[in-house]
Amino acid sequence: MKIDILTIHPQLLQSPFEHSILKRAIDKNLVDVKLWDIRKFSTHKQKSVDDYAFGGGAGMVMMIEPIDNCLQEVKKENQPDEVIYLTPDGEVLSQKLANHLSTLKHIVMICGHYKGVDQRVRDNFVTREVSIGDYVLSGGELAAAVLSDAIIRLIPGVLSDETSALTDSFQDDLLAPPVYTRPMEYKGLKVPEVLFCGDHKKIEEWRHQQSLERTKKLRPHLTKE
Question: Are strands 60-62 and 50-52 parallel, antiparallel or unpaired?
Fold first, then answer.
């Protein structure tokens, strides 16, 4: 998979891709992530990327020209399957969406800043708008990092245990059950006995029941019963 991220602050996105699972995925050539500095594609002498909004109002707006110039350069290498704009009013990121995006070959993400981007970018270049929650961040960079992480970990070969991602919360519209590790007892706090009974069917039934109970309590809208 190839992921191109268009931003005016590429340095904000360097760290997430230089550590842990994302770095291993890049090192194993399972994903190619490239950060594009939108400022380099500005035709203004001062490399400006924003201007005042027509009609007035507080805040600056990212201009269409440098974004278009950058995007056209990206498309010279490959035609993307999706051009995603990270925005609070987009489709809320879900496990189902992450699953779908992980099957694509090439994704472009556009990070907004200030009061967002010129609407013509959204109307003409963007194919999908994604939000990581009903709140506002200073820019789309952190959202792009979250979305990238959610996608990349699902790519076959990224996780050492291929079944790990399949048992994550939300994969079956249920939250994951509680997990425990050694020691079996710590300061009087014990691990449920069922987990070391040796009966795998009984353990899976317990885990499923725990998932149901957790989901009903914490995400009742997900339950189908």
Answer: antiparallel
pTM equals 0.89
**Assigned token pair, 204:** 């899976």
Q: Is the pLDDT of residue 225 over 70?
A: no
What does the pLDDT read at residue 162?
Answer: 58
Q: Provide the 8-state DSSP code for 108.
A: E
* Cβ atoms of residues 80 and 74 within 8 Å: yes
pLDDT, tens digit (0-9, with 9 covering 90-100), for 42-51: 999 899 999 9
How far is 219 from 169, CA to CA, in rounded Å?
11
Within a domain: residue 50?
yes
Query: Are 73 and 110 in a shared domain?
Result: yes
Give the count of domains, the chain: 2
Residues 159 and 196: beta-carbon distance below 8 Å: no
Ramachandran quadrant class, 185 (left: phi over 0; alpha: psi -120 to 50; beta: rest)? beta
- Structural domain that includes position 198: 169-222
Sign of CA dihedral 144, 145, 150, 156: positive
| Token representation of residue 213 | 């109970």
Token pair recorded at residue 88: 């609070």
